[in-house]
Design goal:
The complex is a heterodimer. By secondary structure, chain A is mainly alpha-helical. Helix content of chain A is 73%, strand content 0%. Chain A has ten helices and no strands. Chain B folds into two domains: 16-224, Rossmann fold (3-Layer(aba) Sandwich), CATH 3.40.50.300; 235-309, Alpha-Beta Plaits. In chain B, a hairpin with a 2-residue loop joins β1 and β2 (28-38). The chains are: A mainly alpha, B alpha/beta.
């Protein structure tokens, strides 16, 4: 059964690796698994890219900007954050909980904080790929450029607080619901926020009541903050940013309090 | 080699101490006053039927659950409070392996190796557990036995001082079971302490230095497997070339109670329809052997095998569980 390279000594020599090394190894594993699952690539890359290209090419949207791409790119970036933080992270974590992966990792030397850090690292890495890909398509394919008054600080604050809000929501679902319920719920929210979250359809164009609700949700605020940060619209970013951050704090605290590992 | 963790307590202290352990679920005691010690370098088997409380007891030792009563010490530490120094030192194999379905054995062993300071070489370990050929097969496509072997590899990759294996041979084919037992026996010679749960007698019979039999959360026996088997009462067992009818069994009992042997014995069927029997309630004696043989000769039944003694570990185990059930009723 062996070719002579087998373990020859079982003499104990236990010890934990440095937490950073364990965390990086776990983050790399999370990324490898994401890349291996076709449905993850579909929701994080294919759908945002397809929506961006389609709606930027066929001028059917009642957008408020001079050209559709100026409205679309920030909205699709918000959708990209939702797809990675809510859909991808939430569903993967829900199934890890159902399969006992979280339990098994909990019995390993990787601390819980290390596991959470690894998941955050993986989310940020995926979002950077999304950001680079979507901006490159917008710039090269549709001649998009940064608008006047663009602020990197606002963009980063929007992406960070948006990630916090939707990752908190994804982990809240993953840690409290059955995996199948998280799968359905996260995909349902993705579709709902795509339609009424100010991502491709301006909130102003929605029926009055629906528009009022949409303005309170983090998706529209995230898209608004990104539009201001990228210089696509004028206005004060503090309002939408504060709303997204409030959602982020609320969902994260709830997730920390209610998450069940088994 | 140096030990990574200076666990509390000296090398002479027990690796595991369990004292009056109680765990309740919804008011029902799943573990009900369990006590035992496991010495350093010992292979200790926790044997019992499904639902006996083995996994619950082991999960308290692993730090997954909190006890409702009693005390446990693992390498001198409290697993519920001191999880972080114990994690690198104690190798775990869970009943549900907890591995990503899409992950491949090679990368999952490499991942767990990265969690440890001085891990085994992942490829050598895969070779040792016989998974080199399946190293890149997704976990969900592995056979039950291969999944178990991967679980065993994860328990061992960090060079642990203590391993806790929950049903390590479940789902393995006979060759896999033999290989796993051989590997676990190798651990003992290196001084690794092993706690394994099982409902397979062959596991404890061939491996364990001592075995604790538990049923309904209580300890019903604690001894080396050989002593446990010899604790079975002496009985006469015989095999015939044909099965007896119920009526014939009653006639045999009547004959033995009569002048030929003068004992109140009952005929217990050991194998339905294959002619294997045990005489309960009577100590073997020359007169009893002669009486059984004579009665069989009268009926034209050939005695294929007849022996006296304490029986196998399996029979003793079933007796212990039966006695425990009667004790509860």
């Amino acid at each position: 059964m062996t070719d002579g390279r087998a373990v020859t000594s079982w003499t104990p020599a236990p010890g934990a690796a440095p937490v950073w090394r364990a965390t990086l190894a776990q983050a790399a594993m999370e990324l490898r698994l994401t890349a291996r699952r076709g449905e993850n690539l579909l929701v994080t890359l294919v759908i945002p890219v397809a929506l961006l290209v389609f709606f930027a090419s066929v001028n059917v949207l009642p957008t408020t900007t001079a050209r559709p791409i100026e409205f679309l790119l920030p909205g699709i970036l918000a959708l990209a954050v939702i797809s990675t933080s809510l859909v991808n992270l939430g569903i993967a974590t829900a199934y890890e909980r159902a399969y006992g992966v979280l339990k098994r990792l909990g019995g390993s030397p990787l601390p819980r904080g290390g596991l959470v850090a690894a998941k955050i690292l993986a989310v940020v890495a995926i979002e950077l790929v999304q950001l680079a890909l979507l901006v490159a398509i917008a710039a090269l394919g549709f001649g998009w450029t940064l608008g006047p008054g663009a602020s990197l600080t606002v963009v980063l604050a929007a992406l960070g607080s948006g990630t916090l809000a939707f990752a908190g929501l994804g982990l809240l679902m993953a840690g409290t619901l059955r995996a199948e319920a998280t799968l359905a719920g996260a995909n349902g929210l993705y579709l709902l926020l795509l339609l009424v979250g100010g991502v491709v359809v301006p909130v102003d164009q929605l029926p009055a009541l629906l528009g009022d609700i949409a303005r309170l949700l983090p998706a529209a605020a995230l898209a608004d903050a990104l539009r201001i940060g990228l210089g696509m619209s004028t206005g004060n970013a503090v309002g939408p940013l504060a709303l997204v951050l409030a959602w982020g704090i609320a969902t994260s605290l709830l997730a920390i309090k209610l998450f069940r590992w088994e | 080699m140096t030990l990574g963790v200076a666990a509390a307590g000296g090398q002479d202290d027990p690796a595991i101490v369990v004292r009056g352990l109680v765990k309740r679920y919804g008011g029902r005691a799943v573990v009900d006053g369990l006590s035992f010690d496991i010495g350093r370098g010992e292979i200790f088997g926790l044997l019992g039927p499904n639902g006996a409380g083995k996994t619950t007891a082991v999960e308290i030792l692993e730090g997954y659950r909190k006890a409702d009563g009693g005390e446990v010490r693992v390498l001198g530490l409290d697993p519920a409070r001191d999880a972080s120094p114990l994690r690198p030192t104690v190798g775990l194999m869970l009943q549900e392996n907890g591995i990503y379905p899409q992950a491949r054995p090679a990368e999952i062993v490499r991942l767990f190796a990265r969690f440890h300071a001085r891990p085994h070489d992942p490829d050598a370990l895969l070779d040792t557990v016989g998974l080199l050929d399946a190293a890149t097969t997704p976990y969900r496509r592995l056979s039950g036995g291969q999944k178990q072997r991967l679980g065993l590899a994860l328990a061992l990759v960090g060079r642990p001082e203590l391993v806790i294996l929950d049903e390590p041979t479940a789902g393995m084919d006979p060759a896999g079971k033999a290989a796993a037992r051989e590997l676990i026996a190798d651990l003992r010679s290196a001084g690794v302490t092993v706690l394994l749960t099982t409902h397979e007698l062959a596991d404890v019979e061939r491996l364990a230095d001592r075995v604790a039999v538990i049923d309904h959360g209580r300890l019903v026996a604690l001894a080396p497997p050989s002593e446990l088997a010899s604790g079975a009462p002496q009985r006469l067992r015989f095999t015939l070339d044909r099965a007896l009818t119920d009526e014939e069994s009653r006639e045999l009992e009547a004959a033995l109670a009569g002048e030929s042997a003068g004992v109140e014995a009952s005929v217990r069927v050991l194998g339905e329809g294959v002619g294997r029997y045990r005489l309960d309630g009577a100590d073997p004696s020359p007169a009893l052997v002669r009486a059984v043989a004579a009665w069989c000769a009268d009926r034209g039944a050939l005695v294929v095998e007849l022996r006296t003694g304490g029986g196998t570990l399996e029979e003793r185990y079933l007796e212990l569980l039966g006695a425990e059930a009667r004790h509860r009723d």
